[in-house]
Amino acid sequence: MASCGVCGGEAVLWRVVDGYDYFDCGVCGSIAIDAASLDQIDSGNFPRHYDPDYWAMEARDARDRSFGSSLARVAESFLYARRPIDRYVDIGSGPGFLLDALSIYLPAASQLFFGVEKFPPAEHSTHPGYIVGDLADEAGVFDAGVCVEVVEHLTPTMFRQVATAMAKCSAPGSLYYFNTGMPEYVKNEDQGYMDPLRRGHIVSWGWEALRMIFEPLGFTVFPVQRKTFAFVVEFQSSDQTAMADRIWTPHPQNRAALIDPQMGSVMFALGLESARAYA
Predict the structure, then answer these.
(1) Biggest CA pair distance of the chain
(2) Which residue of 31, 91, 171, 205 sits 20 to 30 Å from the alpha carbon of 230, by its own alpha carbon?
């Protein structure tokens, strides 16, 4: 037994990966690197430094996601959101490939999209919405957003900082879609997902951990129908409608944004079919 580095509850050793102990917590449900390593990371000692070598390795996967599955996540979130989306943010945008992909598939709505990246690679998107900086420093309000393959890199302290920044720049009803390997996914589909040295994956967040982080800030945490790699949070909302049921009544403005004069209804169809694929 050991103390969970996420919540302090009792946790059992799950696996040793590249010399690092990962623990499975029976309280918050997370799989996390040992608490001492989390403290070291908070002090700036990362197992994996996000240097040019990392970005060179990450670039291909980031581009593949951005021109594939991440487009589906964005389209889904437009159908799930209950408020009209005038500003949409990609949190932890990396090179900004998703902004580039959205400019191609939704050119008429390109001005809606922003990407925030605190540690950008040397070469990144020239999209006017690409922001080098911290989400906490943003003065504007976002109505929705996506965060793809980011939070598995974060310590609890870092994740709370991101969630606090989200609350600061969210309007009531703002909705955010997170794509990350949840414990069910890690245990049953990809045990290699926990990877401290190559990809820098240190935590797979359990449901109770997510509630501990988000609920005090005014967010509600939602599952996404049978997707073991996703969850949604919504700010200051009393709407308890499941994501799977929202797709039939999207906000008219958001539905219209997914149907482009040039590209047609491809993004609307992608969002609808992706939302239904795991139902």
Answers:
(1) 58
(2) 171
